[in-house]
Structure formats: structure tokens, C-alpha cells
Amino acid sequence: MQNRTPGNTQGIDVSRYQGSIDWAKVKASGMTFVFIKATEGRTYIDPNFQGNVTGALAAGMMVGTYHFFRGTSVEIAKAEAAHYANTLNKVGGAKALQLPPVLDYENNPGNLSKAQINTVAKAFLTELQRLTGVKPIIYTGNAFARNFDASLGSYDLWIARYSSTRVPDEQTAWKRWTFWQYTDSGRVNGISGNVDMNEFEGTAQQLRARYTAAAPNPTNPTNPTNPNPNPPAEPPKGGEPMTVEEKAAFEALKAQVDRLQARQQMEVPVWAKAAVEAALAYDAKNPLFSIDNGASYDFYRFITVMHRRGLFKK
Fold first, then answer.
1. Active site residues
2. Which residues span the membrane (predicted)?
3. Average pLDDT of the residues of the chain
4. Roughly what angle, to the nearest 10 degrees, separates helices 74-88 and 114-132?
């Protein structure tokens, strides 16, 4: 496969083993993306998952997640995919993140044949894409990658090979890597101890563009695959008088907010707090909404997406 290239953007992957992370320092150190462990098997959730996602997003990093796979049958593979997808909903769903979800398949606890390995992998990947609407990535080791057949080559590859002199081997399914995990003993400001280091096969701009299709549509969060060609304009800055056009756009946005709030009410989830606070602070004299009695999941997701797109910046 190809070698690392100067100018390729750098990132990390983390789990509970990295402990408390100062994400602002991580971003300032030059890391542009991160894959965060979400789940393992059919029941386990990494205890730092939500906090890591919230912190990394707040620091301005591109965020993806991964699931450590233990499946030994099609039924278990589908159950693991459902567990992963349900856990992603705690942070707004796979489409609320900048990078796709990842199948981390690196060992064979059930002593499966190569054919069985491919069958359970495909079952997981197909089910996860059905549940999330996002095509996953495959993570695996240089040696274990030999188990995968050519039919899995349509999935982007994130491969582990810890070497400064040897590139990952060409495989039946892949001739190039999309992400290369090149060491498990990296050091990054903001993290105590070692951390896995990764490189994307291009610049940060190219990484962002590659997975743009996976990003949610801010004007239609309940159906992100059907974008609205005429999104509402940004509401006026606080304290400035509205033009007729601005008022119409603001009222259209407020009507959509009202519709979302009319659904089942819930308290502000941790992943939406920053967005809600920014939206309420945008124009305190003429607030866009009130959450005194809670709001719906779709509403919080909508506000979060609008916040990430910079709508509430003054």
C-alpha cells in the first residue's frame, strides 16, 4: 500500500484508557480528527464515550466513533450493530458526526473460517448502515486484513501497522488505506500517556469533503438524505432591526422549531447543552425558543446541527 505523505492530516483514536482528555490542547497540537470508542459486543458502552464526543466536538475536531466487534454469528452481528446504533443516538446519531461509524474487527474469538468472518462482517455492516443511514468504515490489523474478501473492498479501510519503515500490505480487498494507525505509543498534548496515532490519505479539507454526504442537513434533520435546496436565511444579529426578508426567514425557522418542540418532551441531553445555550444567548431579548418544559429529541438534534453550522455566532 501507499506510504505516509507530508501534508496528510493527523488524528488519534481514544477510549476510556486515555482517561480525562483536554480536547482544546489536543486540537491545538495539530490533531484534526478523532475516532472515539463507543461500544463493544452486545451490551458494553465505553464510560467516557459521551464526554469524549462532546469535548472533541466543542474543540472543533472532526469526530467519528468505533465499535469493537465480537460477533460469531449473523444474529449476534446484527445485535451488535443495533447496540452500536442505539448508543450513537445518545450523541445525536451517526449523521450528527463528521466521520462515519467504524467496525473494529481485529480478532477471531469464535475461531471462524474466512468465509464465516466475511459473512458476519457483512451482516454487521449492512445492518449498521440500515439503522444509521451512513456507510461504515472497516478497521483491522495488517495481518487480520487477509481474512477479508474482495466484496468488502467497497468499504474504506482504516488499518493498523505499527512501523516507521514498512507500509501496510496489499490485501485481497484493498490496495490502499484510507486511514493508517501507524503507532500505539504516540504522545499528544492534552492526553496523559500513550495514544494511537492515525493519518488520513489527504489534507483536512479533503477528509471533510470525503464524508460530507454523511453530515446531517440542518434544515431537515429528520430526513437528512433529502436536502432542502432553499434553507432559511440566518436570523439577524441581536440588536439589529429585521428586514422583511429576514423576518420571514426567522419566522420560518421559528415555525420549524415549534413543530419539533411539539413532539415528546425531554430534558436537555448532555450532547446538546452547548448548542442550546448558544441559541438562547444569541438574542436574549427575542429568544428563538423556550425549553422550560423540555423539548423533543429531534428538536435538540436540530439545534445542535444549526449550532455546528455557525448559525448562532454573533
1. 13, 106
2. none
3. 86
4. 30
